[in-house]
Amino acid sequence: MRKSRRTGKKRDMQRKHLLFLMIFLTVLLIVLLSVRGFAYADESIDNNRVKLYRSITIYAGDSLENLSTTYMTPEYADPMSYAKEVAFINHMNSDDKLIPGNHLIIPYYTDLQ
Predict the structure, then answer these.
(1) Beta-bridge partners for 103
(2) CA 14, CA 80: separation in Å to the nearest integer?
(3) What is the structure's pLDDT at 40?
(4) Do 39 and 71 sit in the same domain of this protein?
(5) 63 and 74 both lie in a single domain
């Protein structure tokens, strides 16, 4: 009688562990599939475009705003958002002045070859 009680408790524990493991693996699988879906969400916009960077020389009279209208690609909402990204990439504050002869790194999108 004692032996059957022990084996019954042991089986119950094994079932609980198995149930816990199955629930854990199911949740893990759901999370992994969700993350994978988010990782590819931006690619649905245009798989043939890549973001690149180039260096440009600053000339007298240049500003982030007029450089934005010259170099901005359609992926940006407006010249101001492009100017903000250029400032961020080049570690600039909003009150920093562009100095002729210096260089800026600017982003742009292009088609994959």
Answers:
(1) 57
(2) 62
(3) 47
(4) no
(5) yes
